[in-house]
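Figure 3 (text version): structure tokens given as input.
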């Protein structure tokens, strides 16, 4: 059986603002105390998850590291954080996406050089459930040798 989606144009599928498209001091950010950067595909694939974050007071912007380089996204985020004051900044992605993982690393990297800032949080959608990952988990995910060691599978050449 076919899908219920009507694909007329990609632009028509997405309505949430893209991080790269908004001014760093946009009204989108000004009145918000919580910001979440969401994988763009979640708007189409899991819109109810995004709605839950909106209900919790998050301003939602989207990003797609498959289409937008993570360095551009990180520089834009740094510009936003330099101009706006958030109590919390979060990232929400699909778990297991090799592209979206970069958004978590990007947030950690930006926070390294922009201290002090509010809290940061990392969320992934796993089997239709939102799971929070710690900063330590995000950090370790960048280091394959550390993960190998944690798994007890260290092989040195």
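Below: residues designed for each position.
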């Amino acid at each position: 059986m076919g899908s219920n989606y009507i694909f007329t144009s990609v632009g028509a599928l997405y309505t949430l603002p893209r991080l790269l498209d908004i001014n760093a001091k946009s009204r989108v950010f000004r009145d918000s105390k919580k910001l979440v950067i969401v994988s763009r595909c979640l708007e189409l694939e899991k819109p109810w998850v995004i709605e839950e974050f909106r209900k919790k007071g998050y301003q939602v912007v989207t990003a797609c590291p498959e289409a937008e380089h993570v360095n551009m996204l990180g520089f834009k985020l740094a510009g936003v954080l330099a101009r706006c004051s958030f109590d919390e900044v979060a990232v929400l992605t699909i778990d297991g996406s090799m592209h979206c993982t970069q958004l978590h690393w990007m947030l950690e990297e930006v926070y390294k050089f922009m201290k002090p800032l509010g809290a940061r949080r990392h969320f992934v959608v796993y089997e239709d459930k939102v799971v929070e990952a710690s900063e330590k988990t995000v950090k370790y995910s960048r280091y394959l040798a550390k993960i190998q060691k944690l798994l007890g599978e260290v092989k040195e050449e």
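The longest strand covers residues 119-126.
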